[in-house]
Design goal:
With 121 residues, this protein is an alpha+beta fold. The protein is 20% helix and 30% strand.
Length: 121
Amino acid sequence: NVNPGNNLHVSGLSTKIDARSLEAAFAKIGRVQKASVMYDPHTRDSRGFGFVTMESAEEADAAITALNNTELMGKTLNVEKARRGRARTPTPGRYYGPPKRYNGELYRFSLIVNFSDNLSS
């Protein structure tokens, strides 16, 4: 899944920023296809980074030039081409969340994946 050149990884985001304000910042430079902020699935807090897909590679290059090392909502942005063309596909199976602590003891819940369909020869 190679990045066609129009997908940007944006880090150093303020925890207060949402996809709409991220999109607005990039829309001043060029046409935005999609903007997304990554959130922690359990706390719902921003993880401080996101992705912006511009209409063209040229607009993505212009956004890097215009916005990299600039300030947005009190934080300095780092804008670079994303390594992948799109987000990763979620891991299959059931996720039981981060390790849980009870009385100081660490308990792990396992990821259950059914591989039996792939084992038939």
